[in-house]
Design a protein that fits this description.
The complex is a heterodimer of chains A (325) and B (174).
Chain A: E1 2-6, H1 10-18, E2 23-26, H2 44-56, E3 60-65, H3 74-87, E4 91-94, H4 97-106, E5 112-114, H5 123-133, E6 137-139, H6 146-153, E7 159-166, H7 178-183, E8 199-204, E9 207-212, E10 215-220, E11 235-238, E12 241-244, E13 251-253, H8 258-263, E14 268-271, H9 278-292, H10 299-304, E15 314-316
Parallel strand pairs in A: 1-2, 1-14, 2-3, 3-4, 4-5, 5-6, 6-7, 7-14, 13-15
Antiparallel strand pairs in A: 7-13, 8-9, 9-10, 11-12
Chain B: H1 5-8, H2 16-33, E1 49-53, E2 58-63, E3 68-73, E4 82-86, H3 88-96, H4 101-106, E5 111-114, H5 116-127, H6 133-138, H7 145-163, E6 171-172
Parallel strand pairs in B: 1-4
Antiparallel strand pairs in B: 1-2, 2-3, 4-5
The chains are: A alpha/beta (325), B alpha+beta (174).
Chain lengths: 325, 174
Amino acid sequence: MELICPAGTPAAFHEAVDAGADAVYCGFRDETNARNFPGLNFSREELREAIAYAKRKGTQTFVALNTFMRAGAEEIWYKGAADAVALGADALILADFGLMAHVAEKYPEQRLHVSVQASASNPDAINFLVDAFNAQRVVLPRTLTIADIARIGKNIRCEMEVFVFGGLCVMAEGRCSLSSYATGKSPNMNGVCSPASHVRYRKDGGELVSELGEFTINRFPAGEAAGYPTLCKGRFDIADSNGYAFEDPVSLDVMGELEALKAAGVKALKIEGRQRGKAYVAEVVSTMKAALNSPPDRRAPLLARLRTMSEGQKTTSGAYEKRWR
Amino acid sequence: MLIPPILSAPLHMIPIPLIERICRLMFGRIAKAHPGLFERLDEHRQKRFAFLPTDLPLAFVVVPGREEISVLRQPVEIEADAITEAPLFLLLALMEGRCDADALFFSRDLSVTGDMEAMLAMRNALDASNIDLQKDLAKLAGPLAPIARRVIGEIRDRALKDQNRPAGEAAAWN
């Protein structure tokens, strides 16, 4: 199985390639991708250099253009696609059907991957994208069990890629409006979940208080591991109780299920984290590459070290091992 | 790794202008070695970024657009757009991109307040810059540069080793 690794800067890109990534995914420094954070991402020239570096090392580069086009501003996304193709991207990761149609028509030879943001989660939806736009791979939403993935794999006509490590969203990939509700901006349209412009941290005694817009997201007592300031991981007062309503501050880790994912027909394993630093990329990619090359019984000790890099310093297998249905 | 009080105590006595002069020299050297260092800051270049080492009686305030650094004696009310607090070696490791800021935030080793957009841009600018303090600063020692390089390298290795905690401290959620 291929290891698909994140990069938010050229420095992180180099780390991913050097650590053994089979492919690195990244985006332009604008609203065309779902990690449109201040100071992050690639200029055209940086992407040109990164792709050249990757090609020399035999690594592929996937360019994420995985936000939904704004009506009247489609040219921003069309230009992004044209530039990514011209720069030699091995695949474009797309979520918007309109952009998929544009790429399929203008650049029929360009490899097209369906972003997790497209929320294609059943054979009918996936095969439609294969037939209509010649999609060659689908990144499956993190809403499926491994048994679901195996069933889908038997009934689709393209490759499957799944997230195995990193940040975990609530189960409404590409359709989540929580950030929009709190701030007016979303990952789907603006490329930002819980934009930094709306985030505030303050100390209240020994507690760390995180706020998003006008909402208090969490109060972390002294010594308790912290999480991102997203509504989905907020701690709420509900009736007489106080706790996490949607999700705990926790990251995904299903590296313990590699054999099952392989048996399910998964072609590629994806690491989340373009917003993370190059130290994270280097550590996670090298550790996961080592785990992939190790026998199953040797993987757990290797992977345990990654837990301290996870949100809330905790990990979950999420929906892959859904136990509540 | 924390600076032991026995080493930080003399900083109470050293005049601030002297410390500031040394810091400006180092800042200038780094800026010269990495001319595109603050390009990613965009509209945040003129903002005031404060860095507070929790194990030193000093605070550092940087205005990237003016390549300006000032030093204040702690405790003091800091006037800055964004403030980062962590032990000195972690701040230096972040400057070099050798630690992941999010992971340090999760573990509560690092705290940030103020303008998060500016601070995030600064974090990403530093992470993208390939600063190497051992290489960039040793030259300031002139003929003693090889010794300085070795000393800086040894201190850095020890600090980073100390930062790599056993993974057993963390927990699985399910």
